[in-house]
Amino acid sequence: MSPPVSFCGLELVHPLVNGSGTFDAIAARRVFGEAIVTRFPFAAFVSKTITLEPRDGNPPPRLYETAGGLINSIGLPNKGLKGYLGQDLPALDWLPVPLITNVMGSTAAEVSALVEAVDARPEVSAIELNVSCPNVKTGLDIGADPAELTKLLGDVRPLTAKPLVVKLTPNTADVSLVAQAAEAAGADAVSLINTLRAFAPAPGGAGGPWLGGGTGGLSGPAVRTVALAQVRAVAARVAIPIVGMGGVASGRHAQDLLEAGATLVGIGTESFRDPLAAERIGRELQEIAANGPFSAR
Ligand code: RRO
Predict the structure, then answer these.
(1) Would you state the pLDDT for residue 297?
(2) pLDDT confidence of residue 296
(3) What is the pLDDT of residue 80?
(4) Could you identify the atom of ligand 1 that is nearest to the CA of residue 77?
(5) Amino acid 23: pLDDT
(6) What's the CA angle centered on 226, arms 265 and 25, to 5 degrees?
(7) Which residue, among 79, 92, 117, 104, has the nearest Cα to 42 in the 3D structure?
(8) CA 231 from chain center: how many Å?
(9) CA of 175 to the centre of ligand 1 (A)
(10) Per-residue confidence at 131, pLDDT binned at 50, 70, 90?
């Protein structure tokens, strides 16, 4: 086992978590049964993003495979706050690790309502704020602009004493400035990277999009070095813990992010290929710890 990690007051048994939206614990329980309880691959479970109202998500196609990566345009399908609290939370009562609930809203009022409601639930150990959402007035992602994020956290931070993690977007001029704003406004941690904005052309030309939602977000091996650069830049500017993620498919990749300054490492796209990838990555991390930096290269 990798060493336990203290993260915003949570004692985690190792440093690997899932990236929001890349592992469905309720479906995993259905498919793997009791085995997923005893062999849960993550040290904390991060929920898919929830919104105030239910959403169907984007029209298909929602995925596009590209060289070394995956472009998604899922569009936040979820049961909404009421469905999450009433159906998903009870269906997750077997989780052997802390639950981090990821929320997103397009106004401060929406985010506040989500945070207040989730804060009231003892099953939730921490809240992750997905700020890759366009401001309805400016059209800019809230998380792309330090001033916007400062304003949002000014409203939301006082609403919860639970650890508040801000999931940063890489689609901004300087992610470290946004991270600094998050820290100054009271965030307990930041997580990065979300997906890189990308466009998948429809086959047959004519310049149209393949994805039903138009543009999408790129993840997977192609973004790993971008994640390393952004985590390093953020680590140089903030003292709060960082959850680093982006293209991690091996223990070596996870170790690289830890060395870049991350406290925890998120596994995302690799879990689509192998839902128990995090277990293997954890073993590889241990091997590196035991045998030194040139093992498992
Ligand atoms: O649901 C999505 O399409 C989605 C979200 Br909310 C996100 O934060 N990142 C992403 O790549 N896809």
Answers:
(1) 53
(2) 56
(3) 98
(4) 1
(5) 98
(6) 35
(7) 92
(8) 14
(9) 18
(10) very high
Q: Looking at residues 267-285, what average pLDDT do you find?
A: 96
Residue nearest to atom 6 of ligand 1 (CA): 76
Between CA 230 and CA 188 the distance in angstroms is 18
Minimum-distance ligand 1 atom for the alpha carbon of 132:
8
Structure tokens at 183: 């820290």
> What's the gap in Å between 3 CA and the centre of ligand 1?
31
Task: Tell me, yes or no, if 8 is annotated catalytic.
Answer: no
Phi-psi region of 212 (alpha: psi -120 to 50; beta: other; left: phi over 0): alpha
* C-alpha triplet 281, 287, 288: angle, nearest 5°: 90
- The pTM for the full model equals 0.97
Q: Residues lining ligand 1, judged by CB closer than 6 Å?
A: 21, 49, 72-76, 130, 132, 194-195, 217
SS3 63: strand
Reference 211, options 47, 64, 106, 43; nearest CA is 64
Q: How confident is the model at residue 133 (pLDDT cuts 50, 70, 90)?
A: confident
Residue 19's nearest CA partner among 284, 279, 264, 260 is 264
- What is d(CA 188, CA 186) in angstroms, rounded to the nearest whole number? 6
Does 96 have pLDDT greater than 90?
yes
Q: If you measure from the C-alpha of residue 76 to the centroid of ligand 1, how many angstroms do you get, rounded to a whole number?
A: 6
Catalytic residue, chosen from 118, 133, 156, 178, is 133
